Amino acid sequence: MSVRIKSTAISRGGDTNSIVEHNGRAAKRCLERAGIRPDQVGLLINAGIFRDSNTVEPAVSALIQKAAGIGLEYAKDDPRTFSFDLMNGAIGVLNAVQVATSVLETGSAEHVLVVSGDTHPSLLRSVGDDRFPYATCGAALLLEHTDEPTGFGRVHTVAGEGTPAIEAYVDVTTMGNTGRGAMTVEREPGFEDRLLEVAVDAARLALAESDHASLDEIALIASTPSPEFPKKLAAALGIDESSVRTPDLRDGDPHTAALTAAYDQAVADDTLAAHRQLLFVAAGAGPSAAAVLYRLPVFAGAPA
Questions:
Q1: Left, alpha or beta for 252 (phi > 0: left; psi -120 to 50: alpha)?
Q2: Where are the beta strands (DSSP E) in 147-180?
Q3: Which of 35, 193, 220 is nearest to 110 (CA)?
Q4: Above 70 in pLDDT, residue 101?
């Protein structure tokens, strides 16, 4: 048994910069595309980092769950949906895939919904844009178990050495009463090179399980700490640049939503049919990285 993607959806722009609202909309759209009822979702995992007004409590996953209309019935025999935040920067979605795989293998949930995405805590994109590199984008990834030879393989993780390459924090001493709408993001000089190093290591571990698929049969979907990062990673791995699939980067780095958004875009553009497998790679703060191969059906395209 393995775990496969049932459907995806993203939400960005429009009338709000609330990541709760965007993820709620993405979740609803994702379930509609899959033809799945809210009560069929047994677990919701939120992998986002930067949230509305720097909310700490309650868990943002619970707010997204409410916005998505999932598990809101409280009668005795109504189905229950558990939700929690899983925060590990840009690699959080792949960590969520690890958790979802364990849950789905037990049969304790029919579907797992992974939401991700970030926003400036002020909810005003005009505030701090030059120093806050992340786009406002909500993404939803619906997972289910399958007995077919498709889906995710093992997620490989690599931890780098030294100090974090990227740090984000609220400096309460200097923020004063504006702390709920402010965030400091610091990226050390050369941070991209450090992320690339661990990303290459994780990707090579995943590629070792490629069932002898040639590199030209593998499409790369990677995190986007810079617009050039996925192409640099492809070059380091020997994957042709034409096989790189990226999300919309016009508003900046989608950060935790990047992998889901890139996959959603590739499906919409029907650009996966020539490939046997996808290589998902994410690298972030630590520096740390995660990578996993995803085996596609014989005829790739929009998920059922």
A1: left
A2: 151-152, 156-159, 166-169
A3: 35
A4: yes
Q: Which amino acid is at 86?
A: L
Token digits for 302? 């929009």
Cα–Cα–Cα angle for 43, 41, 73, rounded to 5 degrees:
100
Q: Give the contacts of 286 (CB within 8 A, at least 6 positions apart).
A: 89, 159, 160, 164, 165, 198
Nearest to residue 3, comparing CAs of 106, 152, 154, 111?
Answer: 152
- What's the pTM value of the predicted model, to 2 decimals? 0.93
Contact criterion met (CB below 8 Å) for 180 and 51: no
Using N-to-C axis directions, what is the helix angle for 191-207 and 229-237, rounded to 10°? Answer: 50
CA distance 153 to 295: 8
136-150 per-position pLDDT tens digit: 999 999 999 999 989
How sure is the predictor about 47, in pLDDT bands with cuts at 50, 70 and 90? very high
The identity of residue 122, as a single letter, is S
Q: Are strands 218-222 and 277-284 parallel, antiparallel or unpaired?
A: parallel
| DSSP 8-state symbol, 297 | P
